[in-house]
Amino acid sequence: MTRPFASLLALTLLTAALATPTAQALEGDASAPIQVEADRLDLDDRAGTAIYRGDVRIEQGSMQLTGERVEIQRNDAGQLTTATATGQRAYLEQKPAPDQPLVRAWGRTVVYHVAERRIELVDQAELHKGGDTFDGGYLEYFLDRRVVQARSNAQGVSESQRVRMTLEPEQQDAP
Q1: DSSP symbol at 20
Q2: SS3 category, 13
């Protein structure tokens, strides 16, 4: 097998890993086409990494991930394990379930842990879920459990960023 064909095959397999049901929230997301735009791609078959650089945009169904640099890692079985976006304002959005509001998240670093369906937001972290908003130096959100953990500072970040939140009251049915 020639090297360019092997790299193309590995990229195809890596991209297909994004389509696994555990990586996507909505049923239709798993079968949706994956769109990737970037200025550059560095693929390492042996390490199981693909690094996209330059105004990166990845979309599949309800999931959207953007950043100046996005690194995708897979395990030995070829399954996606993490997607890490970095930049001045890296961004992730996904609809966790049909009956839940869209989750939108920003940070200088956004890490999506696929198997755990967990999002880490580092440095100038911001999370919006429906009318609820959370800001801080570090935020962690578990999509399935709907758990948010927030900290004022994150490892490797010198400036503390106070935790702030706005919670919308639940709507009461009129009698």
Answers
A1: S
A2: helix
Q: What is the CATH number of the domain that holds 103?
A: 2.60.450.10
Q: 43, 49 in Cβ contact below 8 A? A: yes
Residue entry with tokens 């578990």: 142
pTM, to two decimals: 0.79
Q: How far apart are CA 91 and CA 104, in angstroms?
A: 7
- CB–CB of 63/32 below 8 Å? no
pLDDT tens string, the chain, 175 residues long: the values are 434 333 333 343 344 444 343 434 566 676 778 788 999 999 998 899 999 999 999 998 888 999 999 999 988 888 889 999 999 999 999 888 888 889 999 999 999 998 888 999 999 999 999 899 999 999 999 988 889 999 888 777 777 788 999 988 877 665 5
Does 173 map to a domain? no
Structural domain tally of the chain? 1
CA separation for the pair 7, 111 (Å, rounded): 25
